[in-house]
Amino acid sequence: MKSQSRVFAALPTEFTEMKANQQGLEPKAVTGQVREVQVTGAAEASCPADRASMRISVTSSKESAGEVTVSITRRLDYILQALRQHGVRGEDTSVRKFLQRNADTYCMDAEVVVVFSNFEKMEQICSVFLEKLDKSVFVGTPQFYHSPECLGQIRRRACVSAVENAQQKASEISQLSGQSLGPPLLVREKETREWKVEEEEERSAPHIPVVTASSCVSVSFSFRDRNRKKL
Description:
The protein is α+β, with helices and mostly antiparallel strands.
């Protein structure tokens, strides 16, 4: 994870006197006067795809609509049963059927779309289908993608890391200037970016995209004199 931060001191002008050759934050102020330090921080978070969609196509041609329906249904029943046996939930599976007539022949195409979150399980099921089913069944290449929950988590991680980074820098500045860092007054996300990179370890392996999200935040903290007297 890459991160960077910039620090600015925003102090009331009536309490600040800076020399022309002065470096760092060394404001002159009335003891105990609350001041403000503004810090900007940036961070990135990345994550590979957490979902994969796989299509299983079945085709059959018969002389009657009844025969082709029975043929397709038998294959679909086997496919759906195999999916259930491997722990695939019904809500992660959808089935579509298309019947058409060409001259004296009835053709039916069926498609099963399965969504996986366990890629190892997906590979096992693919192997079973390729071994047990004939050429009338086609197992498509998995399409990997990020779920909305995963994308939301990446964005939150980037934002939280940016705030933590900004707070760390503000704490270091307060120590160097002899101040005590107070609670945050305002947190504002200034900029967000998101991009996807296709990752392929082997030529024969499918692409697994990796999404990276970046966040730039501006945080204002109260800034107190560490040596102020308690009332």
